[in-house]
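Our preliminary data section would be incomplete without showing what the modeling component actually yields. Below, a chain of 218 amino acids is followed by its predicted structure, encoded as C-alpha cells that our downstream tools consume directly.
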Amino acid sequence: MKVVLFITSCAVALVAAQRDRDRWVSSSERDDFGSQRSNRFDSNNAYLRVDILLTKFHNPDGVRMDGKKCDWLSACDTWIRGMIDFENPDAPFPAIPVPYSWPKIGEKWANNIIPTIHPSEGNITRELCGDRYRGVNLRVVIQDWDGLGSREDINFFDCRITADPDASESTAIWRQDVTCIPVYKGHTMKLDFKYQIYKISRSQCNPQRLATRFRGRR
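Predicted structure:
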C-alpha cells in the first residue's frame, strides 16, 4: 500500500512540475503583443514590413501608352509614382484611388538605372499591423515628363509579392530580379524590382507609416 501511495505521489508531483514548466515556457515565449513565438506565420494576424526597391525600367522603343514616341530626339524622361497595396493586392489596377497623387518613388533619365540610392535603404516601405496578410502589390504609374509640367502616361504596373515574411529584419534577405506585370502589354516595356519582407512586433508597427526614400529631381 505504501508503495502504491509513493508511486501515486511521485506521478502527481511530476504532472505538477510539467505544468509549471509549460506555464513558464508559454510565458517566456510570448512577444510584446501576446502571441506565442514560433516559426509559424499567422497570416490572419500579421505584423510585418515590406521594403521595395525599383531597379530597372526598360522602354527600348521610347514610347508612351498611346504608342507615340516620348521624344523624337531623346529617350523618355520617366516619372514614377507608386503605392503599396496590402488591402486588395489581387484587384485590377489601380485598386487604390487617385494614382496620380501617389508618392514619387523613382525617375529615369537618359536610360539610367533608377533610383540612385543605396539598395539596402529600399525606396518605398509600408507596414501591416494586425491585419490579414493577402500578399503585397506595389502599384506603379510611369509617366513621361517634359520638364514644363506636362505628363503623359507610359504604362501602369502591378508588382506582386506572395512570399511569407522572414523572421526578422536582421535575418531578412533581398529577393532579386522580380518583374512587374504591365497593365498595357502592347509594348516591350519591363519594370524590375527587388524586395525584402519580414516580421516585426506590435510595438514596432505603425499602419500609417509609408516611407519613401528617393534622392533625385522633384
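The CA atoms of residues 108 and 114 lie 6 Å apart. The first helix runs from residue 2 to 28. Preliminary results of this kind motivate Aim 1 of the renewal.
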